[in-house]
Design brief:
With about 625 residues, this protein is mainly β. It contains eleven helices and 41 strands. The strands form ten sheets. Strands 6, 7, 8, 9, 10, 11, 12 and 13 form an eight-stranded antiparallel sheet that branches. Strands 5-4-3-2-36 form a five-stranded mixed sheet, with no helix packed on it. A four-stranded antiparallel sheet has the order 1-32-31-30. β34 and β35 form a beta hairpin. The longest helix has 20 residues. The chain is globular, with a radius of gyration of 23 Å. About 5% of the residues have low confidence. It binds calcium ion (4 copies). The site of one calcium ion has 9 residues, from β28.
């Protein structure tokens, strides 16, 4: 442990008791929020209205109960598993979402969007509800991707237990691929994503372990299972890079690819961050530094986190998301950490590529842009919430909300400065005894003015909940051109914030479908040229913490129109759409506008694909039909 952090922690040991007073802040803010909410649309161009119940979405996340030798700190051990992942699984033009639960025998939910503002839970009927058991494990999250390119998104479920891949049978049911797929037998995973790292047109999988994979959390070998350090822990779970063979099976290429991380990974996301043409993997790690794995040949990866700057300062990484925050065509990385006023202020990281560098060098601008303090932060997602053409940031937080006037922070800081032999043994961790640890926190909604200033507006626009947020996902659930917000809370309800955006503001959405590239278009990058400016977005799978946004790209435009959309497909093709109509969702198939296919990339995997997509929902336009 470096001396600066040690001093800070020792200092807080002697100065605690401040944490309890933080719990009073949400109540004060709630009082002023009701006045401000009315004017929010005028002031910021949008407001959020929590409407889960009206949308017939009523779920309550429940946590598992692990080995009784962890009972004294169970709220910390069983602190994750509330997740949400968006996809239009039945291809009816309305985006649906999957919600996980984590108690043994509890049920997960698949909310099918009925298109009338309400949802129905079809998880049980379609075979993806009853997936939390003592032997197979309990859900930590899920991520959608069409691994067999049949046009229907398939579902990868990751657990503290056995990861499971469900094949989507044309939106009518899900069938577990079981052991046939060749996935690992047991991973204590908090994150996974789909990416086509070798760009062969088939989605590959990355699953990141948190706890060691040989640990059965219901039957510990002993209590020496905790991280060996709060800053330099290398005794976490292994990672899995699983290459899609194209026959429904996956091969483990982790070792061959040079990925040997043993860090405690909480979040992973993939995008072409360094302009190699291949996706890079960013890993947000708890108890240590981040990792940034880059490939230039689609075979081997190198961790460039240290030289790029993103992997120097050890913190408590819990989020990985990407956004072009300055509309200059460069993706910044947002990683969340822990900040507790007066106690421990790590600050969240916003890693922005340096202008002067040739690529691959980042600087942390979170503090100077005002997006560093987010409490005990989890998911943070970029998206244009107010359709003005800039990427805003929605963050959820809160760790354990229990006794409102008692805090575990003092005991937590004592264990944090211990010797590794002390820290790594759960038996040494002080009992929580019903106390809170960074509970009841205010969420953050940062609006980006495009010039380097973010304004925090959560209470004003209506994001006033104080649950222990884990996953947040953004998606236009009503096909209105506004990004609605889904929030999955640990031991709390799933929230659906309907986004009401000033209708005078223009938008455009692009629903990309690969033909030579993977059909989900994951890794496709769109540069939208608009009003003499540009916005860059890349289609990703996992984003945030245990979350997946809607995969359609949503761009706000203010009062503007679009000059052109330049699409860089993972196959290497570039496709240009001139002057696409605004206030429309456009469905764009790779290569369908008559541009030549790159030679040698025709893939027989598409031979059996449906020739026609279903009829688009109202408000959609199939750009290929023009
Ligand atoms: Ca649907
Ligand atoms: Ca599929
Ligand atoms: Ca592949
Ligand atoms: Ca904006």
């Amino acid at each position: 442990m470096n001396s600066a952090l040690r001093q800070r922690l020792i200092w807080l040991v002697s100065s605690l008791l401040l944490a309890a007073s933080v719990a009073a802040i949400p109540a004060l803010n709630a009082r002023s929020a009701s006045f401000a909410h009315v004017a929010a649309t005028n002031r910021f161009g949008f407001r959020l209205v929590e409407s889960a119940a009206a949308a017939h979405v009523q779920t309550q996340h429940e946590a598992p109960t692990f080995d009784e030798r962890l009972a004294h700190i169970m709220p910390q051990i069983a602190s994750t598993g509330a997740s949400v992942a968006v996809a239009d699984f039945d291809r009816d033009g309305w985006q649906d979402f999957y919600v996980t639960n984590s108690r043994e025998q509890s049920l997960n939910h698949l909310y099918r969007n009925k298109g009338d503002g309400t949802f129905e839970d079809v998880a049980a009927a379609l075979g993806v509800a009853d997936v939390n058991q003592r032997d197979a494990g309990v859900s930590m999250g899920a991520v959608w991707g069409d691994y067999d390119n049949d046009g229907y998104d398939d579902l990868l479920l990751y657990r503290y237990g056995r990861p499971e891949l469900f094949h989507n049978e044309q939106g009518r049911r899900f069938v577990s691929t079981g052991a046939h797929a060749g996935l690992p037998a047991h991973v204590n995973a908090n994150s996974a994503t789909w990416l086509d790292y070798d760009r062969d047109g088939r989605l590959d999988l990355f699953i990141a372990g948190y706890w060691r994979e040989d640990i059965d959390l219901w039957a510990l070998p002993d209590t020496r299972v905790m991280p060996e350090s709060f800053e330099y822990a290398n005794n976490g779970g292994r990672k899995y890079l699983l290459r899609n063979r194209g026959d429904g099976t996956f091969e483990d290429r982790t070792e061959a690819a040079g990925i040997r991380s043993r860090r405690w990974t909480l979040a992973v996301a993939a995008a072409d961050l360094l302009g190699t043409g291949y996706p890079a993997l960013f890993l947000a790690n708890d108890y240590g530094v981040s990792e940034l794995y880059v490939t230039r040949d689609g075979r081997t990866f190198t961790d460039v986190a240290r030289e790029s700057g993103v992997g120097v300062t050890p913190k408590s990484g819990m989020n990985a998301s990407f956004g072009d925050v300055f509309n200059d065509g460069r993706l910044a990385i947002y990683k969340s950490n822990i900040s507790e006023p007066g106690v421990l202020v790590q600050g969240n990281d916003l890693w922005v590529p340096k202008e002067t560098g040739k690529g691959g060098e980042y600087e942390n601008l979170a503090s100077s842009l005002g997006v560093d303090l987010g409490g005990w932060s989890w998911s943070a997602q970029f998206g244009d919430l107010n359709n003005d053409g800039t990427q805003d940031l929605y963050l959820v937080n809160g760790y354990v909300s229990a006794g409102e006037r008692s805090s575990y922070w003092y005991d937590f800081s004592v264990i944090a400065v211990g010797h590794s032999s002390i820290i790594s043994d759960a038996a040494n961790w002080p009992p929580m005894k019903g106390r809170s640890l960074s509970g009841y926190q205010r969420k953050r909604v940062w609006i980006n003015d495009g010039a380097g200033r973010f304004t925090e507006v959560a209470q004003v626009v209506g994001a006033t909940d104080a649950f222990d947020g884990r996953a947040a996902a953004l998606a236009d659930l009503r096909n209105t051109g506004a990004l609605d917000v889904l929030v999955a809370n640990q031991r709390g309800p799933l929230l659906l914030y309907r986004n009401e955006v000033d209708p005078a503001r223009h938008w455009i959405e692009l629903d990309l479908e690969g033909t030579t590239s993977n059909r989900s278009a994951i890794g496709a990058r769109v540069e939208l040229q608009w009003n003499g400016m540009k916005q860059l977005q890349e289609v990703t799978a996992a984003s945030g913490f245990s979350a997946q946004n809607g995969r359609r790209l949503h761009f706000g435009l203010g009062a503007g129109s679009v000059d052109r959309a330049v699409i860089h497909w993972p196959s290497g093709q570039t496709q240009v759409i001139e002057k696409p109509a605004v206030n429309q969702l456009h469905h764009i198939r790779e290569g369908a506008t008559g541009l030549a296919l790159a030679p040698g990339l025709a893939d027989p995997a598409y031979a059996g694909a449906p020739a026609q997509p279903p009829t688009p929902a109202p408000g959609h336009r199939d750009i290929n039909a023009r």
